Amino acid sequence: MPRATSSFGKRPAAPAGSGSRPSPTSRKPLAISTCRMPPLIINSAPPIEVPAGASILEACAAHGILLPSACGGRGFCGRCAVGVVSGDLTAPTPTEENKILAEDLAKGLRLACQARIHGAVELRIDPEVMAVRRHTGKLIGKTFLTPDIAHLRIAVDEKPPFAFRAGQYIQFEGTVAPPPAKPVLRAYSMATDPSDPLHIELMVRHVPNGVCSSWIHEKLQPGQPIAFRGPFGTFHLSGTQAPMVGIAGSSGMAPLRAIFHDMLKKGIQRPAKFFFGARTRQDLFLLDEWAEFEKQAPWFEFIPVLSHEPPDSPWTGERGMVTDAVARRLPDLTGQEAYLCGSPGMIDAAMAILTARGMPADHVFYDKFSV
């Protein structure tokens, strides 16, 4: 599922460099380097040499440090934000000023794809991000859930070991052109729970004129090698026992499918209602799977909602926007949590409805995508 935003997980994203860190003014700045290979220090480790003029994203990747980047480093998603302790970088770009709050920029938060290295730089990067690796495997299954959503099943190579949490995503390498062209990176949530890390599934929506999604839909075939980076993301089940409201549409089903299946396998029985929005009946998928899931999990209810189903059709389920159905069915959400995955418009509308019905904003977890 392609997505891009600075808001991933619980409220704004925990960026790659988030967590406790000194502000850039709390310690002496590094001496500005005039050499062509200035030093880059990460988490107080020994310095590594990087080429002057490279972006932080490029410099880290050259040393095997794979920062999250749902948009492939184009500045759309905001997920590659890192904490700059000190150093000599280019000034914040208009893209950064749009994606990062002014007070966070002042504290040293920068987009790694935008900030270019002039001299010595010191960064703080989350240890979980530092542990991300590149993985390989093979596509062993490809079906179409709807005309515009492909369902991929991937066999993952045993080394390096791959472990993830339900709700996280990978950066898929689309080899849309032969070498020496670089692969196109796109972020897709895993639609499977972590019980079998050697097999993962993705739901890929075809984006009109999308380079990677078009290649996946039209060119990629079972048997072809696959490569990806991950896992990434903070969108996952909380540790509470609060009742849950899931809201998603289209390929946004993927991370919620992983979370609910993971709950069933672990014996977690939190009351949960999953509202899934689609345009018409032709846009619904996995209905038999969710019906069987409801039989196995009496604490769970799947509620499809159609926004553009013809009035004279035999559909007897919910109609309208998915957020309208939530408002009709759940007048009081005090003490509950919500897990959302969808477009920025859907997420914003859901936030308004959920908070108006008593759900604190910090009880809303979301995966917002716009690419």
Keywords:
single chain, Ubiquitin-like (UB roll), Elongation Factor Tu (Ef-tu), domain 3, seven-stranded mixed beta sheet, 9 helices, 18 strands, disordered N terminus
Structure description:
The protein is of the alpha/beta class. It folds into 3 domains: 17-125, Roll (Ubiquitin-like (UB roll)), CATH 3.10.20.30; 134-232, Translation factors (Elongation Factor Tu (Ef-tu), domain 3), CATH 2.40.30; 244-368, 3-Layer(aba) Sandwich (Rossmann fold). The protein has 9 helices and 18 strands. It has helices at residues 56-62, 94-99, 102-106, 127-130, 211-218, 253-266, 287-296, 322-329, 344-356; strands spanning 8-10, 39-42, 48-49, 81-89, 109-111, 117-124, 133-146, 149-156, 169-174, 184-189, 199-205, 225-232, 244-249, 272-278, 300-306, 318-319, 337-342, 364-368. The strands form 3 sheets. It has a 7-stranded mixed sheet, sandwiched between helices. Strands 10-9-12-7-8-11 form a 6-stranded antiparallel sheet. A 5-stranded mixed sheet has the order 3-2-6-4-5. Strand 7 (133-146) and strand 8 form a beta hairpin. Helix 8 (322-329) runs parallel beside helix 9. The radius of gyration is 21 Å and the shape is globular.
